[in-house]
Amino acid sequence: MTENNPLHALLAACHWIGEKGWCPATGGNMSVREGSEYCLITESGKDKGQLTENDFLRVEIATNHVPSGRTPSAETGLHTLMYNLYPQVGAVLHTHSVNSTVLSRIERSAGLVLQGYEMQKSLAGQRSHLDKVIIPIFDNSQDIPALAAEIAQWAQSHPLHYGFLIRGHGLTCWGKNVAEARRHLEGLEFLFQCELQLRLLEAK
Ligand SMILES: CSC[C@@H](O)[C@@H](O)C(=O)COP(=O)(O)O
Ligand SMILES: [Zn+2]
């Protein structure tokens, strides 16, 4: 994996995500920032574990315009939202793992609290298992512009870090580059699995 070529790094991340089983049946979408105006995002409907360079489309961050005229991810608006809100975001990964799907339904509140786990330190800036990491959960919607507007509204008073969950749908996470987004994805997936197992055992 080389950050000298962000698209190659993203492609490698997509193949790794496919091997992990976190994007079954064409679920998920991934993007990388290309300067201040554009990002490259997966074409809609592709198997994200089997992508090639040709499966990424250039999208204008401010308008969601696709110069090629091809069809980008149905969830492009959530990627461009993150690039618009935070200039430091360099890559966005959206996955559909079983753990993120189930946990976001079991947790009925607007946020999943992660506390007591050493692996919280896989998230940028986290220094102790004693701190609380809150991953917001937004209700799923097929109206992506409306969902993006809801998340943007939330972010005005609660700056977003690492990722958010969409209930019954999956995780959207990001980083300053592909390597950091990948680390956040792996760290969060580990934490989700721990939290789900803990809740199952404690319920017995
Ligand atoms: C397998 S259907 C999943 C889609 O509805 C969507 O949630 C998704 O993540 C993939 O959509 P895509 O348009 O391929 O980026
Ligand atoms: Zn999705």
TrEMBL record:
Keywords: Amino-acid biosynthesis, Lyase, Metal-binding, Methionine biosynthesis, Zinc. It is an enzyme of class 4 (lyase). One of its GO terms (biological process) is monosaccharide metabolic process. Binds 1 zinc ion per subunit. GO terms for cellular component: cytoplasm. InterPro entries: Aldolase_II/adducin_N, Aldolase_II/adducin_N_sf, MethylthioRu-1-P_deHdtase_MtnB. GO terms for molecular function: methylthioribulose 1-phosphate dehydratase activity; zinc ion binding. It catalyses: 5-(methylsulfanyl)-D-ribulose 1-phosphate = 5-methylsulfanyl-2,3-dioxopentyl phosphate + H2O. Catalyzes the dehydration of methylthioribulose-1-phosphate (MTRu-1-P) into 2,3-diketo-5-methylthiopentyl-1-phosphate (DK-MTP-1-P). Belongs to the aldolase class II family. MtnB subfamily. This is Methylthioribulose-1-phosphate dehydratase. It comes from Rouxiella silvae.
